[in-house]
Amino acid sequence: MGVIRTYTDAIVNAKPAFDGIEDCPVSFEREKYFALQICERNTALQNTNMLPSLAHAVRNVALCGITLNPAMKLAYLVPRKGQVCLDISYMGLIKIATDSGSVTHVNCQLVYEKDEFELTQGTTESLVHKPVAFGDRGKLIGVYTIATLHNGEKLIETMSRGEVEQVRTRSKAKSGPWMTDYNEMARKTCVKRASKYWPKTERLAEAVQTLHDHEGYADITPPEPIVEMADEAFEKNLPTYTKLIESGDKSASELIAFLSSKKQLTEKQCETLNNITEITEAEVVDESNNA
Predict the structure, then answer these.
(1) What angle do the packed helices 51-64 and 202-215 form, to 10 degrees?
(2) Which of 194, 223, 252 is the endpoint of a domain?
(3) At 154, is the secondary structure helix, strand, or coil?
(4) Do 219 and 109 reside in the same domain of the chain?
(5) How far apart are CA 234 and CA 229, in angstroms?
(6) pLDDT attached to residue 176
């Protein structure tokens, strides 16, 4: 890595990161040009004290696989708290998610108080949103994201205006885009939270972590309630569990891990499964001889 003396040096130092990433969807030469253009227009990014963070921010462009092309409005280099950050828009997050194969499509919309909005939850989810066409829609009251998985399943995430405000107050970036582009930040907040439930890809995880690091967002997603397996259900399925372990299809630890991904097992239930052992071929032969 070369010595960083100017913002040009800082940008050039990102080249090894680009070269080291297989199938990187953006090219260093193009992103170098965009980064230089951004720094020339914003002299705050040329501050010598921020050059190491500028180099790091440009490297994150390669890791996230997102372009700095100003016309695309997907990602930006911004000064924040004495550091240069890679800021990714909600459209940028959506592009990373769809390009990397996490989901096939994402729709994110704002909801206003005069809109017709209905959300149904249960074994299936459905959402109806009818905005007021070409008229006063009232105050912003919420935002939602609908992601389509590869199997066609839809994942819906909603956030009220109050929940968005909680995120804003916990962020280091309380001014800037929160003041000038509140609606876009609300969308990004909802998309980022929704992405927790999408299939994981390395690029999407890198993008979300980049936003966490630079924006200082605290995770306010309410924890899912812990549901224990009822003893009645456990006893009813115990013969099946026993057969799986004794036949060697699953070890006790593997079965416990699988069941725990659905519901939490009690200590007694875990002990019961751990006491079941696999029946070996020798034991089967021995039992036959005894008969």
Answers:
(1) 150
(2) 223
(3) strand
(4) yes
(5) 7
(6) 75
The residue ranges of the chain whose pLDDT is under 50 are: 217-224, 284-285, 288, 291
Do 82 and 173 lie in one domain? The reply is no
Q: Do 142 and 236 reside in the same domain of the chain?
A: no
Please name the helix (run of DSSP H) or strand (run of DSSP E) that holds residue 285, with its range, or none.
Answer: helix 281-290
Q: Looking at the 3D structure of the chain, how many domains does it have?
A: 3
In angstroms, the CA 160 to CA 167 distance is 11
- pLDDT attached to residue 263: 77
Same domain? 77 vs 100: no
Same-domain check for residues 80 and 160: no
- The verdict on 151 and 269 lying in the same domain is no
Helix ranges (H only) for 65-160 are 90-99
**Residue 110 Cα to chain centre, angstroms:** 20
pLDDT in tens, 68-121: 999 999 999 999 888 899 999 999 999 999 999 999 999 999 999 999 999 998
CA distances, 30 to each of 10, 68, 78, 193 (Å): 16, 9, 19, 31
218 and 248 in a single domain? The answer is no
Extract the tokens encoding 203. 């690029």
Predicted local confidence at residue 205, as pLDDT: 93
Q: What range defines the domain where residue 12 resides?
A: 1-88
Q: What is the pTM assigned to this prediction?
A: 0.71
CA angle 41, 43, 47 (to 5 degrees): 145
Report the alpha-carbon distance of residue 21 to residue 28 in Å, rounded.
11
pLDDT one-digit tens code per residue, 33-52: 999 999 999 999 999 889 99
